[in-house]
Amino acid sequence: MTKIDIKEIGKGRRGFIKKASLSAFATAMGLDIVFGGNMPEGYVPVVFQDDDPYKLFSKNKELKVLNSKPWNIESMPHLLDDKVTPASKMFVRNNGLIPAEINVRAWQLTFDGESVNAPKTYSLQDLKTKFKHYTYQLTIECGGNGRSEFFPPASGNQWETGAVACANWTGVRLKDVLADVGIKDDAVYIGYHAADVHLSGNPDKEPISRGVPISKALQEETLLAFQMNGEDIPLAHGYPLRLVAGGYPASVSGKWLTGISIRDKVHDGSKMEAPSYRVPCKPVAPGDTVADEDMCIIESMPVKSLITYPKTGAVLSSGQKLEVRGHAWAGELEVTKLEVSTDFGGTWQQATLQKPANRLAWQHFSATLSFPQDGYYEVWAKATDSNGTSQPMVVPGWNPKGYLNNACHRIAVKVGDNG
Ligand SMILES: Nc1nc2c(c(=O)[nH]1)N[C@H]1C(S)=C(S)[C@@H](COP(=O)(O)O)O[C@H]1N2
Ligand SMILES: [Mo]
Fold first, then answer.
1. Residue with CA closest to ligand 1 atom 20
2. 79 C-beta neighbours (distance < 10 Å), count
3. Where are the beta strands (DSSP E) in 13-161?
4. Does 162 share its domain with 274?
5. Ligand 2: distance of its center to the CA of 95 in Å?
6. Does the keyword Amino-acid biosynthesis apply (predicted)?
7. Which residue, 258, 274, 297, sits at the end of a domain?
């Protein structure tokens, strides 16, 4: 099966449409462009001018498009109410252009690097037939989720709270495949390679090529996934093959996976270098300049939670109780406590917190709240991880790139007619 993404066809250097793409447009339409020779250089036929990302990626219309080049689309707390996030409500974060053409039959995954015994290549079929399949619910959250709240502001996509999801991922364990490849004792890191295209159009540049320490690569839940929620992975989320390493910043979960390098040092691919996906090794004052050598790679994500029901702005009648619910997660750790407050953090009430479906899955919570009188309230949620660390009530540790904002989530609730 070949999937063609019309929007990416012909976007060469600087996004201009080349004459050479005329035939690609014609093929996509199944019609000749009779006077196509008269089209000005760079002209996009009207039928292709309206990018409708919702249609293109089958997304719920309430998701928010932050950027179209590359596509970055954010979800919202009330859309994340499902226990397992469906594709239609999952955020999209791209650093480059989605591969224009995907040939599943010819798709290969190559292992190389200083620390493989010998390079080895697998077809998708090899991976699916030679190794045992596993399914896990894995939480993946963009390192920049919550960036919009930092001050002074950090450049980059201004994510609010919706760059997180927990889907069911099915694939083979990376550790099983690495055992088959044969790796040397000096392996310390892996780095992924993928089929997406750098925004410059330069085929020699990778939009992103990140990785994880070998110990994370060898965890049971680290998958080479070919299914999401029981179906082929949607194109926007990495079809036909994706590395999924839950609990770490989602940037390590490489989509459209074509290669894995086993490194004898920390992987030095695109966006591994400072300051990308790094925070100051020691806390700094807001707005400080931080030298590259003082920035450390983000590994496990911090403890966090989201109230997914009700939607902020809920209106209750006088005396009505409110059943709130949501999810909590803590990177590589487990969430051990979830508390909610209706009085701006003055007092806290313990919520019912479920165990995760498996390690690295988010956990569901619920609590029944009552309100003493009519008026305006906020519901705040605070999770605590198995190390005893809780979410901060204010935006934590400012950092130059605006990563790791795990401040308590808050929703507004009005009680009574005049609330
Ligand atoms: N090949 C490739 N993999 C990638 C990216 C990318 O741009 N290219 N973006 C990364 C980042 S920064 C994030 S947050 C997640 C987003 O995953 P999603 O789009 O499936 O939600 O994919 C990661 N994997
Ligand atoms: Mo990300």
1. 237
2. 21
3. 64-68, 71-74, 92-93, 101-103, 108-112, 120-123, 133-141
4. yes
5. 8
6. no
7. 297
Q: How far is CA 373 from CA 342, 349, 417, in A?
A: 12, 18, 12
Per the structure, the complete domain to which residue 327 belongs is given by 304-415
* Cα four-point dihedral sign 74, 162, 150, 254: negative
Q: What is the pLDDT along the chain (419 residues), one digit of tens a residue?
A: 334 444 444 343 333 445 556 777 777 777 888 888 887 776 667 766 657 899 989 999 999 999 988 999 999 999 999 999 999 999 999 999 999 889 999 999 999 999 999 999 999 999 999 999 999 999 999 999 999 999 999 999 999 999 999 999 999 999 999 999 999 999 999 999 999 999 998 999 999 999 999 999 999 999 999 999 999 999 999 999 999 999 999 999 999 999 999 999 999 999 999 999 999 999 999 999 999 999 999 999 999 999 999 999 999 999 999 999 999 999 999 999 999 999 999 999 999 999 999 999 999 999 999 999 999 999 999 999 999 999 999 999 999 999 999 999 999 999 997 54
Find the ligand nearest to 245 CA.
1
Q: How many angstroms separate the alpha carbon of residue 33 from the centre of ligand 1?
A: 35
Cβ-contact 110, 127 below 8 angstroms: no
Ligand 1 atom 23 nearest Cα: 251
Q: Kindly state whether residues 317 and 262 are assigned to the same domain.
A: no
Domain CATH code at residue 245: 3.90.420.10
Indicate the burial class of 417 (C-beta count within 10 angstroms; 0-12, 13-18, 19 or more). Answer: exposed
Same domain, 204 and 248: yes
310 shares a domain with 411 = yes
Q: Report which DSSP code applies to 298.
A: -
Which residues on adjacent β-strands are paired with residue 306?
327
Residue whose pair of structure tokens reads 């059943």 in the numeric block: 323
Q: Is 90 close to ligand 1, i.e. is its CB under 6 Å away? A: yes
Q: What's the structural domain count of the chain?
A: 3
CA distance 108 to 210: 19
Which residue has a Cα nearest atom 19 of ligand 1?
92
Do 287 and 308 fall within a single domain?
no
